[in-house]
Specification:
With about 160 residues, this protein is an alpha+beta fold. About 35% of the residues lie in helices and about 35% in strands. A hairpin with a 2-residue loop joins strand 6 (about 130-140) and strand 7. The radius of gyration is 16 Å and the shape is globular.
C-alpha cells in the first residue's frame, strides 16, 4: 500500500486532534502517568483552540488507504511544534518521513537551525535524527507537571559547506 504525504486542510483538523489524543495516551504511558497524559491530551479536546493552533502552522499529513498515519506541524522559521503518529503506525517510519518533509521545507525557507520541545517519549527519536538536548523544562498543564526537552539541530548551509 502506498503512503500519501499531503498538506492538511481545515477539514483534517479533527482527525489530527483525535490522533494526537490516541498517540499521547498509548505511546507516552511509559514516561507519563495517567494524570499527566490527561492534562496533556484531554479526552474532550478544546477544538476551537486546536483550530487556532493548527491554522498557525504548516501542517502535513501522512495517509495510507485514507487512514491517517501521522502529522507534523511546524513554522518555516525552523520550529517543529507537533509531530505525532498513530499508535498502530509507531516505529514504522511515519515520524521519520514527516520530519524529513518538515526539515526540507524549513531549510528551503532559509531556516539555519531546527528546534522543538520534545516529550520524554520523543526525545530518543529526535536524538537519532541529529538533534541535541539544549535544556530540560517542566511544563504546567492544569494540576500536572510534565518534563520535556528543548532540542535543536544546527543546519549546515551551502555557504558554510563551500567554505569548509
Amino acid at each position: 500500500m502506498s503512503r500519501l504525504l499531503r498538506l492538511a486542510q481545515q477539514a483534517d483538523y479533527e482527525r489530527c486532534v483525535s490522533l494526537f489524543t490516541r498517540s499521547v495516551h498509548a505511546l507516552a504511558a511509559s514516561d507519563y502517568d495517567t494524570a499527566q497524559r490527561l492534562a496533556w491530551a484531554p479526552l474532550e479536546p478544546d477544538l476551537p483552540a486546536w483550530r487556532q493552533r493548527l491554522d498557525s502552522l504548516q501542517l502535513w499529513l501522512l495517509e495510507e488507504a485514507g487512514g491517517l498515519l501521522g502529522f507534523v506541524g511546524f513554522s518555516l522559521d525552523g520550529h517543529i511544534d507537533l509531530l505525532y503518529c498513530a499508535p498502530e503506525a509507531a516505529r514504522d517510519g511515519v515520524a521519520s518521513q514527516l520530519l524529513e518533509q518538515a526539515e526540507r521545507r524549513m531549510r528551503a525557507a532559509g531556516a539555519t537551525r531546527f528546534r522543538t520541545e520534545a516529550s520524554l517519549v520523543a526525545r530518543p527519536f529526535f536524538l537519532r535524527h541529529g538533534y541535541r538536548v539544549t535544556a530540560e523544562q517542566w511544563v504546567q498543564r492544569g494540576a500536572a507537571r510534565l518534563l520535556r526537552c528543548e532540542m535543536e539541530k544546527q543546519i549546515r548551509t551551502e555557504t558554510a559547506d563551500a567554505a569548509g
